[in-house]
Amino acid sequence: MNDILFRIRKNLKDRVDEKTKENNQNFFKEKIIFYGVKVPMIHKISAEYWKEIKDRDKQFIYGLCTELWRSGILEESIVACDFSEKLENFSESSDFGIFEEWIKNHVNNWASCDTLCNHTIGSFVEKFPEYSIEKIKDWALSDNKWMRRAAAVTFIIPARKGRFLNDILEIADILLADPEDLVQKGYGWMLKAASEYYPEQIFNYVLKNKNIMPRTALRYAIEKLPPEKKKLAMAK
Question: What's phi and psi for 142, nearest 5 deg?
Fold first, then answer.
């Protein structure tokens, strides 16, 4: 494992883009650690190494992902997300604890949070809804803002498919007055995704709660609604 980690890290360092290195921090409120590699290049590197590790057992791959997460470096977390997403067909309900540990202990920015949750955990929820959804609702009650954002953004892709509407609205209820703007954006994005399949239900939800919902969340939630509904939702 150490040899693979060394080579992944060397490849990332060798592909630093100076403009990306100079500008990356501008996209984050929190101080992050990064090499300065463009996202398409990160995915290219992870794809190269996936060919090498894809036949290894799942525990080896999860262990490799955990070591990448532990570094705290943005690009390494994206590589870890790429690997865990590709394990989708091999996931079991017991894998949930691994994903939860990554969020709780290692996620420290919106990009890592969203990449993990949109794909790896979102797919897991679709496969094991009866095991995972109630646990994810508990994330929405966490003191950790990344777990609260994760509770929402995990449902982005399922929401676009028309799945789990009642659970999505329950999570929105829990996060409704959250003080963190990144959590507000997260659950607003979740509602926007659900509006692609359930425009009337999301419109009615926003109307009912617009005096409580922060404007940041509201603007995200109504983005795909027709202009006349947006106007009603934004009216004081």
Answer: -70, 155
